[in-house]
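Model it.
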Amino acid sequence: MDFVSTRIITADIDRLVGFYEKATGVPAAWVTEDFAELRTPHGTLAIGSTRTVPLFAPGSARPAENRSVIIEFRVADVDALYRELSGSVPGSAPGLVPEFVAGPTTMPWGNRSLLLRDPDGNLVNFFTPPASRGAGRR
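Modeled.
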């Protein structure tokens, strides 16, 4: 078995794909107008429109109702990403993030994390492991 992707169902695929492309810097590979993937070396975030749900099982997934899953991305520098996403870097995209749940925080296990919501309300965690941050940096 091989875990390959997580899929988000959305009512506004263009908006959600655009958000993830800007927030991650990963360009989407569009398979159809109703399905796109952001592929990274270790996993894929798939995004499908509500029109794809009946292909699996009608009514089985509803957009913008997730309250139990956190989508996570490892990044080189959480603090720099936060400055960019919050609009404090010249040329950045202010207003891209609808809600920052928690600003950059060092977790008890050492990761530096940034928790936010995407435009559909899904929780997204960008994190930097301690070894990636350099000695003594908080």
